[in-house]
Specification:
mainly alpha; three-stranded mixed β-sheet; 10 helices
Length: 309
């Protein structure tokens, strides 16, 4: 029996029902989006225009900033427009594109964070072999693997959603197209699809998060034998990465580890990884990293000198 799909567009219910609150948050989200753009562009400019680009950690950070920019731009501009609009409509095809792009970019971001953790692990646990292990060929391979795994994750979710029927209600209780709110609109039993979606997203996130936690416990264990200066420097870079990992993974696990039928605060919690985390990441990496602060000061000085000339 073929799936019947009678839905050509979806209507977002959004975050709030009160129009005045929506207009207020429209302005706030606009400021947040501008902060995301500015912060991540500063990170990208500082790294690519300095010697930091020669270090694998900052090479991965550049890619992480790009993912933050693309991921936020996939969601927030439409959210801002919808908060200012009377009726929040998205076509079926545009919804599927947003779903695919969102999970592709988030998937790539997850595995870039894994690559950054691997880089820190090698730098601290095997410092004498660091340049051999983290050569440019391996760094580029890790980025390509991140894109490959992100694509596999997103295309699997997209195919699951494309193969279920939408034949009745078209109101999405969310502000973006995501797998869980979409599955709530499906007009057939979604027990198997729910399990597959949880395995593809929730279980993968939990496993990756536990691997990252284990890697940082191992790093802390190995730091016991190092000098206090070495420990401070290592903890400075690692603490920034841990904060970013927690900000991204904890709300994602809360959102995707539960089945689609469960009642929780998905759309409110998702604001953390769509808006707040991409906005805070540049601050975390710049304010808690001495090398980044020095590079930013040098870049500001060069820009000021060029302006005077």
């Amino acid at each position: 029996m073929e799936n019947q799909n009678n839905v050509t567009e979806f209507v977002f219910l959004g975050l709030w029902e009160n129009k005045q609150i929506e207009l207020l948050f429209c302005f706030l989200f606009l400021l947040c989006y501008l902060a995301v753009l500015l912060g991540n562009f500063i990170i990208l400019h500082t790294i690519t225009c300095s010697h930091l680009i020669e270090q694998p950690m900052y090479y991965f950070l550049c890619h992480l900033s790009l993912m933050d920019l693309f991921f936020t731009s996939n969601v927030v501009p439409r959210l801002i427009r919808d908060l200012a609009a009377g009726r929040k409509i998205i076509s079926y095809s545009a919804c599927m594109i947003q779903l695919f792009c969102g999970h592709l970019l988030a998937g790539v971001q997850v595995f870039i964070l894994v690559s950054m953790a691997f880089d820190r692990y090698v730098a601290i646990v095997k410092p004498l072999h660091y340049m051999v292990i983290m050569n440019w060929q391996r760094c580029n391979t890790l980025i390509l693997v991140a894109w490959g795994l992100g694509f596999w994750h997103s295309i699997a979710l997209l195919l699951m959603v494309l193969n279920v029927p939408f034949c009745g209600p078209n109101e999405i209780n969310h502000y973006m197209c995501d797998v869980k709110p979409l599955l709530k609109l499906v007009c057939k039993d979604i027990h198997v699809v729910n399990i597959l979606a949880i395995i593809n997203s929730g279980i993968v996130l939990i496993v990756v998060f536990l691997v990252l936690v284990a890697s940082y416990i191992n790093i802390l264990y190995n730091l016991r034998t190092r000098s206090s200066t070495w420990r401070r420097k290592a903890l400075s870079t690692c603490s920034s990465h841990v904060m970013v990992v927690v900000l991204f993974f904890v709300p994602c696990i809360y959102t995707y580890a539960l089945p689609a039928g469960s009642e929780n605060k998905d759309k409110e919690i998702s604001v953390f990884y769509t808006v707040i985390s991409p906005m805070l990441n540049p601050l975390i990496y710049s304010l808690r990293n001495a090398e980044m602060k020095i590079a930013m000061r040098k870049e500001c000085f060069h820009m000021a000198c060029s302006e005077l000339k």
